[in-house]
Amino acid sequence: MDQNFNQENEIQTPESSVPESNSVQGAGNNASKKKKNASFKRGVLVGSLSMLAIFTLIVGIFFGLIYHSASEVLTDDTEEKLGLVYSVIKTYYYEDFDVEDLETGIVKGLVEGLDDPYSVYYTKDEYSEFLIDATGNYAGVGAVLTKNSETGVVSIAKVYEGSPAEEAGLKKDDIIVSADGYDATSEELSSFVQHIRGEEGTEVELVISRDGEELNITCTRKAIQVPSVSYQMLNDGNGNPTIGYIQITEFSDGTTEEFKDAIEDLKSQGMEAVLYDVRSNPGGMLSTVTDMLDYILPEGTTVYMLDNKGEKTEYTSDGETYLDIPTAVLVNSDSASASEIFSGAIRDFEYGTLIGTTTYGKGVVQNTFPFNDGSALKLTIASYYTPSGECIQGTGIAPDVELEYEYSGDENSDYDYYKDNQVVKGIEILTSEIGE
Fold this sequence. Notes:
Elements: E1 3-6, E2 18-19, H1 30-33, E3 50-53, H2 59-70, H3 76-92, H4 99-112, E4 120-122, H5 124-135, E5 137-140, E6 143-147, E7 154-159, H6 164-167, E8 175-179, E9 182-183, H7 189-196, E10 203-210, E11 213-220, E12 222-225, E13 229-235, E14 241-248, H8 255-268, E15 273-277, E16 284-285, H9 286-296, E17 300-307, E18 312-317, E19 327-331, H10 338-348, E20 353-356, E21 364-370, E22 376-385, E23 401-402, H11 421-433
Parallel strand pairs: 14-15, 15-19, 19-20, 20-23
Antiparallel strand pairs: 1-3, 1-16, 2-6, 4-22, 5-12, 6-7, 7-8, 8-9, 8-10, 10-11, 13-14, 17-18, 17-22, 21-22
Helix pairs in contact: 8-9, 9-10
C-alpha cells in the first residue's frame, strides 16, 4: 500500500504555476524559484501534501460497515429534514437542477462536517484528476501554465524539452487565449488545463498571443511525466565545482529513481557536499520520501505514525547505502508534508543543516479509499512524527539557520543560483565543512 502525502496539495492558489496536468509545479523551472510562494498553495490540499494510501476494498463488506454505522448520522430526524429541504428545492428553485449533483453534495457535506481540510470526497472525475496529480503522469502538451490573479490572463511559464508544446513552437511567456474554443480567462486554471489535457494521440487547438499577434497552434497530446528532480554542480566558496545542488519539486512515483540518478551523476562529477532544495515542495508519496531517506541516511527510524488506536507504524533506513558528505537543506513556509519528513529526518539524524524559514506544518496522514463507482474518499487517519518524536502539525520545522529569501538578480533574466541568498548561505556552510 502506497501512502502519499498530498498537499495539499491544496492550500495552493488557483493562480499557481501548474502543468496542464494540473500538477503543482514543474521541476527545474528556475524562474519560479524567484517566486516560491506564488507556486505552492494549490498543492497541499489536492495532491502533494496528503499522505495517501490507496486501498483495494471489498466493496460489499465496506458498504455493509458504513451502512451499519451511518444510522448514527442518518437519524429519522435527519432524513426528515433532508426530505423537507429537497421538497423546497424542487418546488421553488429557480432553475433546473441535476439530482445526482444533490446526491454528491450530500456525501461531500458529510465529509466536510469533519472540518478537516485534508479529508475530501472525490467524484469519479475528481478522483481521476487526483491520481494524475499524485503520479505526475498524464497526456498533454508538456507546458507549465500560470494565471495572473488580477487580469485572469493565462501564460506559459515553462515548456518542457522534447514536448509537443516545444515541437509545435510554443514559447515561454506566450499568452494562451483559448484551448479547443474554451476561453482561458473565464475558468479557474485548474479547470482550464483539463481542456488541454486529453487522450494520447489526440489534438488540441490552441490560440495564443505573442507580441500582440494571435496565432493558431495545433498540438498532438502525448504521455508526459513531469520531472520532479533537477540538479547541477555549484562552485564552493573557493570557486571549485564541489557542491551538488538537487532541487526536489515533489515526491511522486518516479522521484526516487530521478533522485538516485542525480546523486550518482553528481558523485561522478566530483561532488564533495550536497545542497537539497525542497522550498515550496508541497509533498508527495510517503513511500517515495522514505525510500529516498533510506538511500542517503544511516540506519534508524526516519518517520513513524500513530493512528486513533495508538498503533505505531515505523519507516526506517537500513543503512546499506549512506551518503556520508556535508549536507544542507533549503526550506521555506511552503515546504510541506513529505518535504517536512525529509527535512525532519535529516535534522534529527544530525545529518545536515536546515536553512531558510519555518516549514508549513502538516503532520497528519491521509488514506484514500476508492469505491467501485470510481469515486473515492480521502480521510485523515493518523499523525506522523519525526525520528525524535515531534509532531509538527500546525507548527512546522524551524531551520537551523533562519534566513528570509532574497534574490538580488534581474527578475526578468534567467535564474542565477549565486544571486539567491539562501543558496549562497548553503554554499558558505558546506564549503566550511568540506574536508573536515
